Amino acid sequence: MTAAKRMRNDALAIFRAALKAADPSHAVEQALRARKDLARYERVFVVGAGKAAGTMARAAERVLGRRVFAGSINVKDGDPARTRRIEMRACGHPTPDARGVDGTRRIVELCSQAGERDLVVFLVSGGASALTPFPTPPVTLRDKQATTKLLLACGASIDELNAVRKHLSMFKGGQLARVAAPARVLGLILSDVVGDKLDVIGSGPTAPDSSTFDTALSVLDRYALRGQVPKRVRERLEQGAVGSIAETPKPGDAVFERVENVIVGSNRTSLDAAERKAKELGYRTMILASTVEGETRDVGRMHAAIAREIATSGRPLRPPACVISGGETTVTLKGRGKGGRNQEFALAAAIDLAGLENALIFSAGTDGTDGPTDAAGAIADGETTARAKRDAAKALDENDSYEYFRGIEDLVITGPTGTNVMDLHLVMAR
Amino acid sequence: MTAAKRMRNDALAIFRAALKAADPSHAVEQALRARKDLARYERVFVVGAGKAAGTMARAAERVLGRRVFAGSINVKDGDPARTRRIEMRACGHPTPDARGVDGTRRIVELCSQAGERDLVVFLVSGGASALTPFPTPPVTLRDKQATTKLLLACGASIDELNAVRKHLSMFKGGQLARVAAPARVLGLILSDVVGDKLDVIGSGPTAPDSSTFDTALSVLDRYALRGQVPKRVRERLEQGAVGSIAETPKPGDAVFERVENVIVGSNRTSLDAAERKAKELGYRTMILASTVEGETRDVGRMHAAIAREIATSGRPLRPPACVISGGETTVTLKGRGKGGRNQEFALAAAIDLAGLENALIFSAGTDGTDGPTDAAGAIADGETTARAKRDAAKALDENDSYEYFRGIEDLVITGPTGTNVMDLHLVMAR
After folding, report:
1. Least CA distance to B300: which residue of chain A?
2. A316 vs B313: CB contact, 8 Å cut-off?
3. Is the pLDDT reported for residue A97 higher than 90?
4. A3-18+268-429: what CATH class?
């Protein structure tokens, strides 16, 4: 096997190790088996939502068995998991629908039954927010959607959006924790959010909310939307701001005293697993960052610069070296080609790597789906542009990374993985 | 002194150490004093060009004294340096002019007088290419400029531009080395080029040229410019392509046997000096890359992600940590504000750092001038956005980084430094 081929195989093995650490079933099993307190509770309720909630619920049943007293989870249409004691309800995603409202109401009902001697296990993964709409009357689901749409059109940030949405919901922003009290609550969280912020993942039903009705109103005012949102939304927020409606629970609130939120899988846990595997394969390793964001082509070029530095000066690591990072970059679409953020990351890197020997850049999404393609990502090295016999800069301009790498068989293809802890980037040199 | 204040002072001390290593005077003196062979030559000629050529020539005189037999350098208007034996000729920059042609002719004349027992010291720094126009007759300076303009308008790369320009010059692309043979040639190079490519810095008068007349013609054809460039340019390249004109000297050519090119200052040497200083100040250090390019805001965010990782997980280094990188990023202007690539780097980082304690991002240009401002760069930390009381995202949209940092006195101001080895970026955490 050539050195280049071996390094590619190593990259794929490292990616597989990262995927395994993010496997929802594995993550929930490990987290529950590590606990000593499960036998202590009279009844265990299992609730949750997310794209991986079915798999997580099944894993919870495997560990908890008959100790599951009741449960209900909101999943996407077509979730293949089959549970025994826990109800599975298919709900609208990415656009919330009435089934989502019904499912969330069921979750709230169950949690409100739980008493001081009971445990509520709350399973969360990517997509949970859309799967758990529960507008506070008289605000309707349609009102909430109209408000979200207006905010998105103005370029509001995710924090701004959440400040508004949490104050129109009976579930989000820590309100599930309030409903479940006085039961013990254990949140098992598979994070698809940069930085693993508990108040952002699934809009934080079991996490304290720092935003207030005032925050929500000032967001509307910042974008001059107070007069444009549905009247029921405006009235609700204005009533809240003058204190006529209870706030979402804040940091330090007593309802969180019996709540424990555990990140069972995240980009960071996957990077750790990747690092262990890379060490095992003989590489000097370094985890650079787990919250990488920004335009993918520029982040890709930055990674290529690190590869070049390793290869030419032995810094920051001497070869064999593996620098690991993760997060979720973005693509500003300009062309009409086919690709995804990870494939474009590799394409931009390929241009800067051209001619460099014994170095490689790998980028792939842990969900196995990069943009509207059947690939998870791609691999680039110093020979990529020569082998492709296509103008790489032009392919990049056209956002045509998929066809570029398909032509030279350098796509990374895994199929859907059933998880999502964002992306893995590797800089490798031998 | 608060920890934050101390870290800022440390960042500035590290930057000063980086600047000192790139000081043209210091760099040339050190390089010449390290040589044992200077007494061996009958005569020493000192020639050169660049924005720092005056300072470099003065330093050469200090070391070489009366051994300087003759010399001539092309400098910018207003170069404050004063030499004794070496002629200084002010030439057009950034637009080449007839004074540049005269000065370059003088350099060529001197070099052609040098014999086997003589040494030609060739001093190069940023701007040398524009300062040494020497079109090969009948091509005129105006012809060359028209050709460059056409290529730039089509988006030609620097490598493509150079392939054409070297084949219209009697000086660039290794041709000075040919003129100077059989003398010994010592190129002392202050690099302002990412990756320190000898054939790119000053268009490589003493470096082998891998491009050919064929390359030059195919560049014209790639942009359908063969019929549009001045007739004399087209004819010259076509004659060269069929072998009627001598090629530029290629790698392995005998003219380079007695040529030695030494990078006396570069981004990399400055990063090394920065690292030494950071260690001295008690930081764990890492040089990440010296060839960082790409859109500055995305590269800045990537550095912020590293700061966050250090602060939250102690990776890739445990605090006190200083991660060092360098290169030259770019700004895609969209707004109408005032700023530069380093200030915008810090502004984009500030948004992602918000709320993070004990971490800092520093970015500044070693020439002391960032964009059309009097600042070299800026410093951002977790309190920047709170202190600024201005919408950072909006300032970024407007490319208004200068006013943003000026308002909170976080600009880095050095005045012109007399050197340019691109930019220094620091990620620091305590």
Report:
1. A294
2. no
3. yes
4. alpha beta
* CB of B72 closer than 8 Å to CB of B120: no
Residue B90 three-state SS: strand
**Domain residues of chain B, as ranges?**
3-18+268-429, 24-134+169-211+248-265
The three-state secondary structure class of B43 is: coil
Spatial contact of B209 and B203, defined as CB atoms under 8 Å apart:
no
Sheet holding A359-365, edge to edge: A284-292, A321-327, A423-429, A359-365, A377-381, A411-412
CATH architecture of A24-134+169-211+248-265: 3-Layer(aba) Sandwich (3.40)
pLDDT at A2 over 90: no
pLDDT classification of B2: cutoffs 50, 70, 90:
confident
d(Cα A229, Cα A222) in Å, to the nearest integer?
Answer: 13
State the pLDDT at residue A108: 98
List phi, psi (to 5°) of A406.
-65, -40
Count Cβ atoms below 10 Å from residue A223 Cβ, excluding itself: 16
Q: Can you tell me the distance from the alpha carbon of B305 to that of A299, in angstroms, rounded to the nearest whole number?
A: 11
3-state SS class at A331: coil
Q: What type of residue is B92? A: G
DSSP state of A202: G
Provide the mean pLDDT of chain A: 95
Flag if A299 and B302 touch (Cβ within 8 Å).
Answer: yes
What's the mean pLDDT in B138-149? 95
C-alpha angle A316/B9/B4, rounded to 5°? 90
Q: Which residue of B has its CA nearest to A393?
A: B157
Contacts of A355 in chain B (CB under 8 A): none
Indicate if ipTM > 0.90: no
Tell me which amino acid residue B2 is.
T
Contact by Cβ (8 Å): B139, B168: yes
Arithmetic mean of pLDDT, A283-299: 96
CB A87 within 8 A of CB A99: no
Contacts of B27 (CB under 8 A, 6+ apart): B21, B56, B59, B188, B190, B264, B265, B269
Query: Where is B276: in which H helix or E strand?
Result: helix B267-280
Alpha helices in B281-379, H assignment, sequence order: 296-313, 341-353
Residues 6+ away with beta carbon under 8 Å from B67: B38, B39, B41, B44
- Structure confidence by residue, pLDDT tens digits, B353-379: 999 999 999 999 999 999 999 999 999
Mean pLDDT of chain B: 95
Instruction: Provide, for chain A, the percentages of residues in helix, strand and coil under a 3-state DSSP scheme, each rounded to the nearest 5.
Output: 45, 20, 40
- Cβ of A299 within 8 Å of Cβ of B295? The answer is no
Does B382 contact chain A (CB < 8 Å)? no
Is B288's CB within 8 Å of A309's CB?
Answer: yes
pLDDT of B122 over the 90 cut: yes
Dump pLDDT digits (tens) for A52-71: 999 999 999 999 999 999 99
**Closest alpha carbon to A177 in A259, A119, A103:** A259
In chain A, the residue whose alpha carbon lies closest to the alpha carbon of B348 is A294
Both tokens assigned to B73: 């350098």
pTM score, whole prediction: 0.87
**Closest to A424 in 3D by CA, of A379, A383, A392:** A379
pLDDT tens digits along B10-44? 999 999 999 999 999 999 999 999 999 999 999 99
Q: What is the pLDDT of residues B164-202, one digit of tens each?
A: 999 999 999 999 999 999 999 999 999 999 889 999 999
Contact A243, A212 (CB under 8 A): no
In the predicted structure, residue A262 carries a pLDDT above the cut 90: yes
Compute the half-sphere exposure of residue B303: CA atoms within 13 Å on the CB side of its CA.
Answer: 42
Of the pLDDT bands very low, low, confident and very high (cuts 50, 70, 90), residue A288 is very high
